[in-house]
Amino acid sequence: xxxxxxxxxxxxxxxxxxxxxxxxxxxxxxxxxxxxxxxxxxxxxxxxxxxxxxxxxxxxxxxxxxxxxxxxxxxxxxxxxxxxxxxxxxxxxxxxxxxxxxxxxxxxxxxxxxxxxxxxxxxxxxxxxxxxxxxxxxxxxxxxxxxxxxxxxxxxxxxxxxxxxxxxxxxxxxxxxxxxxxxxxxxxxxxxxxxxxxxxxxxxxxxxxxxxxxxxxxxxxxxxxxxxxxxxxxxxxxxxxxxxxxxxxxxxxxxxxxxxxxxxxxxxxxxxxxxxxxxxxxxxxxxxxxxxxxxxxxxxxxxxxxxxxxxxxxxxxxxxxxxxxxxxxxxxxxxxxxxxxxxxxxxxxxxxxxxxxxxxxxxxxxxxxxxxxxxxxxxxxxxxxxxxxxxxxxxxxxxxxxxxxxxxxxxxxxxxxxxxxxxxxxxxxxxxxxxxxxxxxxxxxxxxxxxxxxxxxxxxxxxxxxxxxxxxxxxxxxxxxxxxxxxxxxxxxxxxxxxxxxxxxxxxxxxxxxxxxxxxxxxxxxxxxxxxxxxxxxxxxxxxxxxxxxxxxxx
Amino acid sequence: xxxxxxxxxxxxxxxxxxxxxxxxxxxxxxxxxxxxxxxxxxxxxxxxxxxxxxxxxxxxxxxxxxxxxxxxxxxxxxxxxxxxxxxxxxxxxxxxxxxxxxxxxxxxxxxxxxxxxxxxxxxxxxxxxxxxxxxxxxxxxxxxxxxxxxxxxxxxxxxxxxxxxxxxxxxxxxxxxxxxxxxx
Lengths: 555, 184
Ligand SMILES: [Cu+2]
What we know:
Distance between the termini of chain B: 41 Å
Bound molecules: copper (II) ion
Structural class of chain A: mainly alpha
Order of helices and strands of chain A: HHHHHHHHHHHHHHHHHH
CATH superfamily of chain B: Cytochrome c oxidase, subunit III, four-helix bundle
Largest sheet of chain B: none
Radius of gyration of chain A: 23 Å
Strand content of chain A: under 5%
Number of helices of chain A: 18
Oligomer: heterodimer
Number of helices of chain B: 6
Largest sheet of chain A: none
Radius of gyration of chain B: 18 Å
Largest interface: A-B, 36 and 29 residues
């Protein structure tokens, strides 16, 4: 479809309010609308989680501040972590996958459209329930991992943790249903010709990630129901004073919690594995290794959980095993970083905003990965655990990693979703402000942690450098606020005045770029034939089709 | 494998893991029981064993129902009813057991055994109840003659069947661990 036809589509959509009216969204089972609703809900909670972060940073800007009370501070960091993980990163990734996967495999919709709507609404309900706690006596205040016995009624005087349990159960059920839906869509609804070896890496990683969720989410659900029994039925599963075991909670939580890290980062890898090859103008280097290492990560992620528990004192053999397994899981992750870098090498690079975020992702994620490996060294972990070094580490993985990749994905697929391009000039500003704000905020936290500043304290003494470093961090957080405003401005103004995208503005090669932007309800009039990993490339360069090149190379 | 059967199988994988975690919690506190009632002091393995036989039998009748359905035989309806009755008897047995435990003062907060016992068997009972609802739905559709034999409808039937066998299979494990082991 040409650009003129694409602008006709937008005109047609705008002339048919029943397709863009409120009810058409609420009652929708269309994967594209549900995907967008997922992302909008994530954006909403991103605002809330960001606001919490800003209050935290304002409180910590100077020693002895009294902007919030200690109890409010506990609620703020608990809600910030829970929100960003369960109500921002997971839903936005669920939304991206729900939108992109059916298009990428050439399907009309996901395998179970109504289940898809259920997934979205139940996870949104979970989020609303979690935030309802603020007006129901107080938000959860035991951190995002609600360690027992702190999360037990004896130590938390409001109902916050109960809302935390119920909210997470909602998010968990929604995510599980979504994972099953995506796995079945990828396994069953692929267009003929798209064999598993020709599957785009985005689909590959989403598939592996679905299995990760299928196995990991029940772990936290089991822990949640047991904690709920403690809280509502006066049981004592996790209270040592009555024979229960607080360490059991830690095992359960991290048995889920570590795979959860990969649940958030595998889709980020998936985005990067699409964006980098397209803007490097060449196929991914070592497709099989990228896919295979993902499978390896999924398996290994279930054997590293106790690296979160070195400080418990589980014994040397235990620590040794989990230290080694944690170092080992860095290997398949390193393979990926090598592959992306090798894809960049000698590529015809186009530094679009999506590409900038993708390349920055590689660097930031590598820093976060390296500080992660440093925690595998048990004595270092004893020194650094629960300090700001850990806060820095996890933000390099989840912000510099996941969020940067999500921005890359949004800049990459926004034209497909809206029919208009995001402004590249504003995008450039958005990227640099984010990059600078992010590093200002979190780089110095490594130092604070090494100086011994513990996480989750509502204030700190006026020791040398502590105020300076904290102030830098706070300034960085407010720079990030500006970056978010620039991003929102870009979205709003581009939706109204952005350049018309056309079907395939990036010269990309996966199937979603073969249909109009935005795609019609039924997605495709005709799905192009798939003879290789890059169907649109093959279509455009029949003389240099991947298949022919491979044959000529004698493979 | 059809897409609905695949989805149910994936769901079952997840559920199996959920039960595995609850079983681990049960076993952990079986090893470190603490004070209060335990399995040996509060459970009646013989009676629950008899009720369990009804549940296991319902798996067989479900299989027969499925076979008749695929053979387009009208016997399917009868076998489905039998499955519902057998599953219902099991659930009745569980309710009775809970009531007796309650009457003798064994509630979820009395001991670590009691908490893990009620969460484990309670969630299993919930799964039985959900399974019965699903079977009731296809029974009604079969009874009024609206459940055809198209591939899609056969998948729906097959998916319910897979789920029901899973619910039974989980009970084999739970019964062995919770009831039999306590008395060995
Ligand atoms: Cu971990």
